Amino acid sequence: MKALAYEKAHPLDAFAIDLVDTAEPRPRDADLLVGVRAVGINPGEAAIRQIRSAEPGGRVILGWEFAGVVEAVGPEVAGFAVGDRVMGTGDWARDGAWAERLAVDHRVVARIPDQLSFSDAASLPIGGGTAWEALFRDQDRLPVGIERVLVIGGAGGVGTLATQLLKSRTSALVASTASRPETREWCTRMGADLVVDHTGDVPGQLRAAGIDRVDLVLSTAGTGGQVGWIAEILRPFGHLAAVDLNGPVDLGPLVAKSVSLHTETVFSRLLAGGNLAAQGGILAELAADAVAGRLRSITTTILDGLTVDTMRAAHEMAESRRTIGKTVITF
Length: 331
Fold this sequence. Notes:
By secondary structure, this protein is α/β, with parallel strands linked by helices. The chain has eleven helices and 15 strands. About 30% of the residues lie in helices and about 25% in strands.
């Protein structure tokens, strides 16, 4: 089969992903074999491309957000059949979805309703799953006492879906951060009650809007450099949910307020063990919300074709840090 792959980690200006012929995936007993129709592109994948190399003689196939059609089912699979339209996150420890076919555990997959396109379905799993788990922690509701939430990075995939989940499933006041006119307008359109500029004095902007404290901060970018003002705006015994804590961070400013810190990666159940079926259940909820209109489409750019040129263009956008919503490649 055809796949987009590379051997050595590399920067964007030395882009080395090629379209190659590679062996068909070997499904496990609990796997689905999925013919991929669309993939969502995430900044995290561009970051991994810069640091992760293949084993000697091997290759790396990234891509962990996909939509497609089931082509085969393993003997331990329940609830899926050949021909089903599905979406999922894949598995960080296995080959990804930048390929014609993907083998994936059926428990981290959900069916796509007929009313949902492949491109919109492919935009949901990573951002939606990350936002859900960061906010709701394996439930469908916020922790008790959370009435005001700040979403840092409100125009990205995680931030956009977090805002919509909060507005559709809770009564919380939602403030988002965005620094450009187009991203501020996007956050408002996605349901944010207030938008503030994270390049300025965030606590001051919140106070000017009548908000002296928030109960929960969901930080999707730049958390390590913003702990000081995050601590300032959080109430005592508040909550910080962060999706980008991948290096040394001084959490000292949070201690005086006894803040609860929640880290999040949507791959936790696969990497560290857990209820895999819960992940498929979250995806099914997201799909139902999208069909019912509770979640608006976040797909803003659609590129066509499993090619080097489309993937390079997608990575250029991801690394610009100026994207809004989600970039999707359809096959």
